[in-house]
Design brief:
Layout lengths: L4 H4 L2 E6 L2 H21 L6 E6 L11 E3 L2 E3 L7 H17 L1
Parallel strand pairs: 1-2
Antiparallel strand pairs: 1-3, 3-4
């Protein structure tokens, strides 16, 4: 499958939505991220998708942002992590 340039330029977030991660905080994390994207009109900058299970349940919940893996994720930190990656992307694009 070929990816479009629009996809390539976005920050890519993948949340594990398997039952363990979902119940341990990724349900809340998903809501926070979706709300943040919508309120800040970031649909053109962020690609968000869920996965059924990353088979890493012991250390969940899990989130992957671009090439970075976050485990034992606290939902209250997801917006800070997203902002960090967006800022990194903007800095990379400028320089």
């Amino acid at each position: 499958m070929t990816k479009s340039p629009e996809y390539d330029n976005k920050v890519k977030i993948r949340l594990c939505l398997g039952s363990s991660c979902f119940s341990r905080g990724n349900k809340t994390a998903l809501n926070y991220i979706q709300d943040y994207i919508k309120k800040n009109a970031l649909e053109d900058e962020v690609f968000l998708k869920g996965s059924l299970c990353e088979e890493l349940c012991k250390d969940g919940p899990h989130m992957f942002v671009d090439d970075t893996h976050y485990s034992n994720l606290d939902p209250s930190t997801v917006i800070d992590l997203l902002q960090f990656h967006l800022n990194q992307r903007q800095t990379k694009d400028k320089g």
